[in-house]
Amino acid sequence: MQSQVEPNLSYFIAKARSIEGRTFQKKIKVAILSSYTINGLEEALRVKCAESEITCLTYICGYGQYNQDILDQSSKLYEFSPDITFVIIDTRTVMSTLFYTPYAIPVNDRRSYIDKRVADFVNLIRTFKNRTDSKLVLTNCSIPTYSPYGICEGKSEYGLREMVYDFNAKLSDVFRSDPQVFLFDFNSFVSKYGEVNVLDYRQFLVGDIKVSLSHIPHLAEEMMGYVKANMGINRKCIVLDLDNTLWGGIIGEDGFDRIDLSLKPPGTAFVEFQRMLLALYQRGIILAINSRNNEDEALRAIREHPYMVLREENFATMKINWRDKISNMKEIAEELNIGLESIVYFDDDPINRELMLKAIPQIMTVDLPDDPSLYASTLMRINDFNTLAVTSEDRKRGEMYRQERRRTELKNSASNLEDFLKQLEIKVTMKKANDFTIPRIAQLTLKTNQFNLTTRRYQEEDVQMFAHDQTKLIGCAQTKDKFGDNGITGVYIVNKNHADKEWYIDTFLLSCRVMGRGIEEVMLGYILSKAKEEGVERVKAEFIPTKKNKPCEQLLPNFGFKKEGQQWVYTYHVPIKQTSHIELNED
Amino acid sequence: MSNNLLDIVANVMEVQVTQIDDESGPETIENWDSFRGLILFEELESKFNVKFTLNELLNIKKIKDIKNILSVRGASLNG
Known about the structure:
By secondary structure, chain A is an alpha/beta fold. Helix content of chain A is 41%, strand content 19%. Chain A has 3 domains: 9-230, SGNH hydrolase (Rossmann fold), CATH 3.40.50.1110; 237-381, Rossmann fold; 425-586, 3-Layer(aba) Sandwich (Aminopeptidase), CATH 3.40.630. In chain A, helix 1 (9-18) crosses helix 2, helix 13 (267-283) runs parallel beside helix 17 (375-381) and helix 20 (438-447) crosses helix 21 (460-467). Chain A is globular, with a radius of gyration of 27 Å. The mean pLDDT of chain A is 94. Chain B has one domain (5-72): Non-ribosomal Peptide Synthetase Peptidyl Carrier Protein, Chain A (Orthogonal Bundle), CATH 1.10.1200. Chain B has 4 helices and no strands. The longest helix of chain B is centred in the middle third of the chain and has 15 residues, at 34-48. Chain B is globular, with a radius of gyration of 11 Å.
């Protein structure tokens, strides 16, 4: 797919009608509850979902009915049973008459007014949470740019702007660590497009429309960030060209000293672009290079150029050669073990882009403007890197890929696999589900496809519930070796049935990064030993085949599990398999 | 994209261009509700680079009214 500019709302209205009845495998139910008229948003959202091959069913609350919909247990909202609910509120509604005349009441009353409004919304959302598992995305309020006090606004204690600011901050605090509730920074949305553009006074006065029709598609685009993240659709890797992309000019012709990359224009454009890329790298986006160049010349620039922001260590892999870029790209995906649909590709050459778009349409080939000063803002417009949480594993991902490169080097130099595994000095620490590990446990159940016995997907809320459930044993495995920390890479969830001296392995998975090193055996051995300690006689498990989970097909039979109908059963008739090259700890 | 007013109206209202003329309006075109009306004005404003006033929005009853406003504003109409 190609990144594109936003069409007008009329396009979405017509398109929504033409795609009616089309269905895709992926499906999401979205409820939109709003404090004002928001016609057209539903259509824009459905069309955008269809573009991402998602069937989107929508529920829109009646005009100003969001309170009733949430409070009434038998409302159409709950009947609809949404996956995501957007609650879109606005400053005028929250502030009521104080929006216009904030200084009509004394400062203490202003403070208690805001506290009261925050409490109202918190209660409303708690009610919602008690009744549904739907994710809830609540907008904050845009902070007014106008104040009747003019330049004295900043001198007034708890004035209009501070009231709205405080309202936003308090809501944000309450829900910061709540995995079910997200604050959509509507104030930033308004800043991005400008208050004078987002609010069209004529539309507002004619129809209580508080996001102008010209900006509804932009709002829908921002909302797609949540929808796609909830469906686990996100781009994970940025593949970059070098000449005229990461620096200006051609290294092979202009030379090391003459490429544009510096703190002076036009080199600043490339430094700015690289800084933005570095920030994404630190969030867990993988960077890679696909460039036609002499490798030694390009590597010298990457390693030694004083104004390179990104260095060798930031790239998970570098394909710098004279082969065709399509083959390079396929190799990158294979080597990093990521799907082509998770790649974003930056290349200044329109012909290369065209070729890539034709050969591998799943890749997002960015329509990069000719002007390098627009590179950074083009990158910032891509709203496809979202996940519902950023875990510490995400932040360390780049480092992990670098370690992986060193592991591969060792593997290539070791005489055999056994030797390699021994030399890795792997240590596995079994950890309980707690506040630190729960987000990562949920993330792994949501995205692990290959080494996953049952592919059961659990949200953070589910995992939290399991952790407090006495009839379940839930934990994870952290793995380290001599090259570094892989973080939490394995998860297990067991249902205990002590009456029958029987356990059932509900979930058992391992990140593909560490497959084939015996870690899965240590984990399974650990579960079987735990069960034995508690007097269990039978451990049941299941292998539910999918298109992708063949790598774990043999795990259960290799451990001596015997097939009984759909399930596999281990009865301690053979000793628990030992894995000598790994050190096991418990935490 | 066509700058023909009737084409734009037909497109936004999802009707055949042959079904409408200067006398058409919210009264005669079923899809032309207040929301579609606002979308139409939005389209016209971006295509002809004009801004309608609130009163103009409220008083447009026929395509002819739009033509009049646009020609007063000096927008170039094809056809």
